Amino acid sequence: MNNNKVLLNTPELKKENQLLSLIENQTKFNLTNCEFSIYETHKAAFDIKLHFDTIAFTAMLQGKKWMKLEHKTNYFEYLPGESVLVAPGETMVIDFPEADETPSQCISLSLNPEFIEDSLNYLNYNLPKVDETSQWNIQLDEYFLFNNKSLASATNNIMRIAMDDNSQKDIMADFALKELLIRLMQTQARSMVEKNIAKNKSRMGFVVDYIKKNLHQKLSIDSIAKLAYVSKSNFFKMFKDELGTSPNEFILQERINRAKELLASQNSIKETAYQTGFSDANYFNRVFKQLVGVTPKNFQNKMAFFE
């Protein structure tokens, strides 16, 4: 389980007498460049198929389901805080084993292909990436994602607009969809570099790999930018474009992620601080609590309890 994934806002479930179907009941909102749907299932069911003709962004709100992409994956658990990108012409095959006790609710955004193409062309022409090996592009193979704050915020925004009774909603939705596309691509890029898919294929892949291997020592933005053969200002722009975060924020989060692994392995707090580049254990304690919500000691005790 990814403890960093962010949950989306959840509309109130419908009463069963308000549903046309107890299985994948669809409430649809049509916009100029997308079709937004809320699906609810209140009854256990298996082998339910949901087909999308155009690219679709889906996200779980509550409950859970087991699903696969018919010609692409094996079954996997789909939970709140997670999103799945469905390629054009793809079919979801879904099981709802627990829906009798815990109804499931998810959303889908079926996107207009021309709108996506126009948005990507605009970004690549007017806001090209610093890394010449990389372009703004949606990766259909990077389909399973954990929602971060930025992606969750953009998704919540388009949900709010779609369900609102406003005569200007189509205009507002177009702006919101463009943000969602950017946040989706940045989330995909972050996921890919974390899996080392981009390693040795781009400046960003090299930079992330270097950071991960050197968390135990002081990391200078100036020196990393030089290693990547890019100016400091372009280095910051490259990070923001690709991952939606600053290099300093990325390094700090990577240090904390590594600290969690070390603490879970019962390393001492002092040694964990040293191994993740913190020269002061007290400062490490403060930063860890700020980002994780508990002290390193409490986190370690919690991990030991669940073993």
Q: Would you kindly provide a written description of the structure presented here, covering whatever features stand out?
A:
The chain has 307 residues and is α+β, with helices and mostly antiparallel strands. It folds into two domains: 16-194, Jelly Rolls; 203-306, Homeodomain-like (Arc Repressor Mutant, subunit A, Orthogonal Bundle), CATH 1.10.10. The protein has helices at residues 113-126, 149-163, 169-194, 203-213, 221-227, 232-243, 247-264, 269-275, 281-292, 296-306, and strands at 25-30, 34-41, 45-51, 56-62, 65-69, 76-78, 82-86, 91-96, 104-111, 144-146. Helix 2 packs antiparallel against helix 3. The protein is globular.
Condensed summary:
InterPro entries: Homeodomain-like_sf, HTH_AraC, HTH_AraC-typ_CS, Tscrpt_reg_AraC-type_HTH, Tscrpt_reg_HTH_AraC_N. The chain is α+β, with helices and mostly antiparallel strands and 307 residues long.
Features:
alpha+beta; 307 residues; 2 domains; Arc Repressor Mutant, subunit A; globular; 43% helix
Low-confidence stretches: none
Order of strands across the widest beta sheet? Answer: 1-2-9-4-7-10
The CATH architecture category of the largest domain equals: Sandwich
CATH topology of the largest domain: Jelly Rolls
Q: What is the CA-based Rg, rounded?
A: 21 Å
Q: How many H/I helical runs? A: 10
| CATH superfamily placement of the largest domain | Regulatory protein AraC
Query: Average pLDDT across residues?
Result: 92
The total tally of domains equals 2
Strand content: 15-25%
- Class based on secondary structure composition and strand pairing: alpha+beta
Distance between the termini: 14 Å
**Order of helical and strand elements:** EEEEEEEEEHEHHHHHHHHH
Q: Indicate the CATH class of the largest domain.
A: Mainly Beta
